[in-house]
Structure formats: structure tokens, C-alpha cells
Phytanoyl-CoA dioxygenase family protein
Amino acid sequence: MNSNLIQLSQEYEQQGYFVIRDYFSREELAILRNTILQFHEAWKAEHLAFYQHEAFNSSLITGSQFLNDQQRLTLFKFISSEKMMAIINTVLPDRPAFMNTQLFFNPCTKQQENFWHRDCQYDHDLAGQQQAIKETRVVHFRVPLFDEPGMELVPGSHTRWDTQEELDVRLARKRKFCSDELSTGKQVPLNAGDLLVFSADMIHRGLYGKDRLAFDTLIFDAAGDFVDYVDDDCLPNRSMLAQLSDSSIFDMIIALKKQLKTV
């Protein structure tokens, strides 16, 4: 591992995130953006009422519902590209596995506020969340397709529990709201072509505004129990796998799924 990757690894372990500015070329970004926009328009048409009233993200981008096989292959090639895999293997060096993709955008309702959260809070009670922070590793690899306000993160919260202020705001209790400001929050603006890497379990929130459209790939450590979260339709078939320069994150999740079926 070269010195730059070592530094990024150390930064992630200490802070729970890092940003690489201008990581992707205009050409790489244009190809990705074109495919994502085709997905986004088809998804909005299918979920119009939801989109107009409350949506701020979509998922299963690599599935077959809205994209054809060639478009899906474009995404698989991007996700498993040398640039992406170098960072994925830096942050998750022990058997990283593909989990999902998500797309984050501005809600149509201007009054809709963003909110502080840890991803694990949607699956666990407070005790479970404390355990998840200690034992699991799920990471977002975010590529903004346009310049945007970015994210607000609480550095270091991926390995520690909430302060009283953070917990009250995140849970919207004691006259607090989950959209309130946090004294520990740090804003991280993003531009098209940047790569933001952050822990799913750290305290964070997206910042709405501008032409926000961010493509996230979620990767987990194979030691974690997340196989049931992965949709088979979102994985590449054998023909697609053969066309990837590095299929290891997909090979890993496919192997984990096979193991689960034999248990």
C-alpha cells in the first residue's frame, strides 16, 4: 500500500470519513452520470407520488427494473474499476463484499428537512446500535454527479457512542428535532467528481440544495451479517462478471449467499 493510501486508511480509522477531491475524470463522470440520470427519470415516473411528497433517495440502482443489461454493466464496471477498488480495499482490506447502491437527491417539498442519523438505527434498538458500532463495518462510497452542499458528519462517531446532545437530537427527544444543529457536526461540501468515503454507522446527514444527485455504493466487511440485505437482482450475472477487471466484491457476496443457502 502506498503512502497516500496508508494516510487515507488512517484518516478513516480516526475520523470515520475522508474525501478525495477531483478523483474521477470528466469522461468517467459523464458516463456514470448518463446512466444514473436514465435510472433516475425512470424511477421518478414509476414512483411519482412518493417522489413528489417525501422521497429523498432511491436504491437498487444496479437492478433490472429500470436499466437494461448494458446500462447495468456500465455501473458494475464503474463500481469495480481500479480507482474504486483501490479505495474499497484500503478501507475494507478483509474480504469486502458488495451490498447495495443508493441515489440521493433533493426532496421536492422545500419544507422537508434533513435529519441526523446512524444507518444502524433503522435495524437496532439503542443497545443493538452500540453493539453494531463496535462489531460491524458498512461503508458508503459516494460520488456526487453535480456540485452540491454535500454532507454534515460527526468526526469520530463511527467508533463511539453519542454525546447527550447528539442522542437527544438524533432521537428527536427532550424538545429537540433530528434536524437541529449539532455542535459536533462538520460540513463537507462536495463537487462533481469527488469521492466521499464514510462509515454508515457514524452520525451524519445529507445537506439539501443545488443540483444534488449523489451515487452511493455500499460495501461491507464479509464478517458482518448483511447477506440478507443484498438483492439478487442487483448482482451481475456470469457474463457481466467476466467483463469486469476486478469482480472480487461481487464474487464475495455471491459466495456468501451460496454459503447461506447451504446452511
Summary: The CA atoms of residues 59 and 102 lie 4 Å apart. The two ends are 36 Å apart (CA to CA).
